[in-house]
Amino acid sequence: MTLGMAHSTGFAPASAGDGQPETDASLIYFSSASGYTRRFVEKLGIRAAQLPLHTSQPTLLALRPYVLLLPTYGGTAASPGAAARGAVPKQVIKFLNHEGNRSLIRGVIGAGNTNFGDSYCLAADIIAVKCQVPVLYRFELMGTSEDVAKVNEGLEKFWTHQSQKPA
Ligand SMILES: Cc1cc2nc3c(=O)[nH]c(=O)nc-3n(C[C@H](O)[C@H](O)[C@H](O)COP(=O)(O)O)c2cc1C
User: Fold this and answer.
1) Pairwise CA distance, residues 76 & 87, whole Å
2) Tally of CA atoms within 13 A in the half-sphere of 114 that contains its CB
3) Does the Cβ of 124 fall within 6 Å of ligand 1?
4) Contact by Cβ (8 Å): 106, 162
5) Is the CB of 159 inside a 6 Å radius of any atom of ligand 1?
6) Is 139 touching ligand 1 by the criterion CB < 6 Å?
7) Residue 155 and residue 106: Cα distance in Å, rounded?
8) Could you tell me if 124 and 151 are in contact, meaning their C-beta atoms sit under 8 angstroms apart?
9) pLDDT in 10s for each residue of the chain, 167 residues
10) Would you call 18 exposed, middle or buried from its count of C-beta atoms within 10 A (0-12, 13-18, 19+)?
11) Which residue minimizes the CA distance to atom 16 of ligand 1?
12) CB of 55 shorter than 6 A to ligand 1
């Protein structure tokens, strides 16, 4: 199932070890030039790694299990397929095209805007299905203080639970 992942390659395996920056952050996120998601992450006050803004830049290589946080850039909601095709930012697709990065994702958090109706945080849903991980939370724009508290608390519980899972 391709889920309309924008490129014919979908999440194709790519070779690692070609000089890419590595990160051991447990939260990895993408934020576009408008920076709403970055501002939300800054409010969390935890160490996090931002994916490069441009696909021409080398993407990150994750070194440990992580939660991915990303906004949706859906197309028109003309049809479910049309919305899904543009929903996941290309920068995130490039990151997840690396088999190692894909194998370390444990959950996803969606940023979006409820004005987009059925496409609200669609990119997080697409990645959850594609990578078989849970959507842990959804929030709008730069989030409220309640969102910040819930995500901080939720991530702490999530990683505690993960560490208690049998290997
Ligand atoms: C062209 C465009 C399309 C968007 N499409 C969606 C969408 O389909 N669903 C959604 O929930 N939010 C959508 N949004 C809202 C963004 O996900 C939201 O503004 C997010 O906070 C942007 O994060 P960023 O500034 O970190 O990139 C869209 C925004 C733009 C500008």
Assistant:
1) 10
2) 4
3) no
4) yes
5) no
6) no
7) 11
8) no
9) 333 333 333 444 444 456 789 999 999 999 999 999 999 999 999 999 999 999 999 999 999 999 999 999 985 545 555 556 689 999 999 999 999 999 999 999 999 999 999 999 999 999 999 999 999 999 999 999 999 999 999 999 999 999 998 87
10) exposed
11) 112
12) no
Locate the ligand 1 atom nearest the alpha carbon of residue 141 and give its number. 21
Can you give the three-state secondary structure of 76-123, one letter per residue? CCCCHHHHHHHHCCHHHHHHHCCHHHHHHEEEEEEEECHHHHHHCCHH
The CATH architecture of the domain made up of 22-164 is 3-Layer(aba) Sandwich (3.40)
Q: Is 111 in the pocket of ligand 1 (CB under 6 A)?
A: yes
Q: Which two tokens stand for residue 164?
A: 């208690």
- pTM (two decimals): 0.88
Q: Whose CA is nearest to atom 8 of ligand 1?
A: 74
